[in-house]
Every structure is written in structure tokens, then in C-alpha cells.
Amino acid sequence: MTKESTVDVILHPVRMRIIQYLLNQQLTAQQLKELLPDIPQASLYRHIKKLAEAEVIHIIDEIPNRGTVEKVYSIHNPSKAIIGPEEIKKLSKDEHMGLFIKFLANLMGEYERYLNQGTIDLAKDGVSFRQASLYLSDEELTEFVRDLTAVYAKVTQNMPQKGRKRRTLATISIPEPKNNTIGGSEYGERSNDSK
Fold first, then answer.
1. Coiled-coil annotation: which residues (predicted)?
2. Mean pLDDT of each 10-residue bin along the chain, 195 residues long
């Protein structure tokens, strides 16, 4: 049996959701179950175990509870929860496509869970998705990404608290094919609000 790559471990819809919850907080499996009620308990525990074995998440504490021990999980090193450039370079064209499909499937799952909650108000909830084409030189793109990263940095360390909802914001940057004579870049941004 071949060992699953870090890419495959991380890019599973359920495991991606677990990672998102653990990025800024420490949670037990029971607390994760409360945050992810649509995932069967046995399945959730299997995914937590796989993430721990891959060292994406870590046990940071063990709390005695009625004769058992509750493990507390967190992410020590956020860089372990992302796919690095060296791993990306090793992927074939088909693997890149598979990776992108998993990414889109995860977004679709987030949006479907939002839509399935009953009464929704897209405008009030801040739901949007858009795509825009930008014409940027390599230097302008680097500056744009740097500026965008700075904007993200202002809020990515926010801890969960009353009045805050977890919101999913995904960015996709796709350059047009090199053989296109006009030249330019495409930039798509999807944003959806999920509880």
C-alpha cells in the first residue's frame, strides 16, 4: 500500500474543514463534532487520525474526562496545513487538474451547506462570487499579491468569538495561455459566507 501524499491528505473535503477550524483554535474531537454535525462521528474520528498521522494537526493536551482521556488538537505549524511549492512542482497535469477539482468541490460543499440551512439572505449574509480579468505585468502581479496578502493578514488571526461568523473566501488566479496574442491575466474571486 503506497503512502498517501500530503496533498491527498489535506485535499479531502472533510479534512479541509477540520483544518479550517483548527487554524486559530484548539479543539477536542467532541468540539469538532459539534462544529461539523453533518459528519458521522466514526468518519470524523478517522479523518482526525489521518491528519494527526500526517503531522498536519497535533495533540497539544490530554484532558481526563469520566474515565477516558479527551485529546485536544491544534495546528502547531500552519505551513504543514498547506501544499508547498516543491510538492506542487512534482504533480503531473492530471494531478494538477485533480487538485483543482478537489478545491472547487470543497467550495461547492461550503456553498451547498450554506444554501441548505433554510432561511437565507444572500445580501445580508455577504454572499458573493465574481470573476474579473486584470491586465498585469509580472511585477504588477507580484505587487497585487503582496497587497492582497497584507489585507488577508489583518483578519486571518481573528479568533472565533460572539458576533463573528466563519466566512470562506477563496481566490483563484489563472494566467491566460502563453500562445494568446493579446496577452493578459484572469483573476477570479469567489466568496461565500458559511456558518
1. none
2. 69 87 87 91 94 90 87 79 76 84 84 88 91 92 93 85 87 83 44 40
Taking phi first (over 0 means left), then psi (-120 to 50 degrees means alpha), and beta for anything else, what does residue 66 get? Answer: left
DSSP state of 79: G
Beta-strand ranges (E) seen in 50-166 are 58-65, 68-74, 128-134
Short-list 148, 144, 123, CA closest to 135 = 144
The domain spans of the chain are 6-79, 120-193
Instruction: Identify whether the C-beta of residue 45 lies closer than 8 Å to the C-beta of residue 88.
Output: no
> CB pairs under 8 A, 24+ apart, for 85-88?
87/5, 87/6, 87/7
Query: What values do phi and psi take at 4, rounded to 5?
Result: -70, 135
Q: Architecture of 6-79 per CATH?
A: Orthogonal Bundle (1.10)
Cα 164 from chain centroid (whole Å): 18
0.85 exceeded by pTM: no
Tell me how far apart the alpha carbons of residues 101 and 108 are, in angstroms, rounded to a whole number: 10
CB-count exposure of residue 150 (10 Å: 0-12, 13-18, 19+): exposed
